[in-house]
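Narrative of activities, Objective 1.

The group set out to show that a structural description can be obtained from nothing but a protein's sequence at a throughput compatible with the screening campaign. Below is one input-output pair from the validation batch, recorded exactly as produced.
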Amino acid sequence: MELRQLRYFITVVNEGTISLAARRLHLSQPPLSHQMKLLEEELGVTLFERGSRHIRLTLPGKAFYERALAILDLSELAKSEIVSLDQEIAGTIKLGIISSAAEFITSRFLAPFQKESPQVTLEVSESNTFHLLELLHMNQIDLAIVRTPFSRRALDCIALPPDPFIAAARPPYLEAADRTGGSGTDGAPVDTETPSVSGGAPADTETSSVSGGALPGLSLAQFAASPLILYRRWEPLILNYFDEIAVQPRIGCVTDDARTAILWAREGAGIALVPRSTLYLTRDPQLVCREITAPRLSSSICLVRRQEKIVSLAAAAFYERFLRFRGELSGS
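Output recorded for this entry:
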C-alpha cells in the first residue's frame, strides 16, 4: 500500500465519482480504477459500491477513509516538522471563515497573526457555517472560523465572547422604534441619541470584547412596524418571539449573508437584525444601531478543528494564538 493510493482513494471519496476524481488528479479513468481495485484486493474488502452517478462507501470503506486521512495527516506533519526544525513556524493553513466574521477577524486577528508569522501562508475559503463544517470533516480545510449555533461533536472549539445582536438602519427607522417603546427591558430610559458607526467598526473598537462599547437597547417588539431584514439562521427564533407576543412583524428581506442584510440597511430598505461584529462590514457613517434587549439574542464566533486530526505546526500555532486572542477580548 502506497501513500499515493491513499491520496487517490480520498480524492475519489471527496469527489463522489471516479471520473471526477481522475479529472482532479489529472489522470485518465482506467488507471485510477485499476489502483482502487489493487487497493481493495490488498485489503481484502470492497471499499465502495459503484453507482450510476456516485460511489457509496461500504462500512469498511468508511473506516478506511478515516484511517487514510489520519495517515496522510501524519505524513504531512512529519514533513512539516522536519522542514520547520531550527526555523520559524512556516507552512500553509487551509482556513475556512464565515462571511459575517471576515472583516472583524481579518482586522483584529488575521492581520496581526500574519505579522507575527510571515512564513505562514493562509488559503482562505469563505462560506456559511454548515458548509465549512462539512469541508472540515472532509479534511478539505484545517481550521474553520464559524458562528454558533452548531453541533460541536468531534470538534475542539475556541469560542470568543458573546456577540450580541443589534438592529442597524438609517436614522428614521430607529428614531421611530425609540418612540414606540420608551424604555429597555430593565426599565431604564432609552438613550434617544442614535450613535453612528463609522470607519467600518462597532463603536469603541478598542474595548476588550467582540461587541465594543455599550449601546442603547430596544426590544424586538419596538421594531415590528418597520420592515425587518433578517439573517436566515435566526429567522425562526425571531418569528417565534413575535408569535409569543402576538405581534405581526413586517419582513422586508430574509438573507443568508450578513453582508446583504447590511447592504439593504445602508440603502434604507429597513432594519437589519445581525450580530454586532458584522458592523465591520460597513463604512457608512449614517448607519446607526441599537442592541436588542428582549429577547436577548447573541452568537459566538468560534475557531474549530477536528479532534482526531493531526494538525501541522503552523495550524497548531494559529490555534494557540486564537486562544490568546480570546483572552485579550475577554480582558483576561
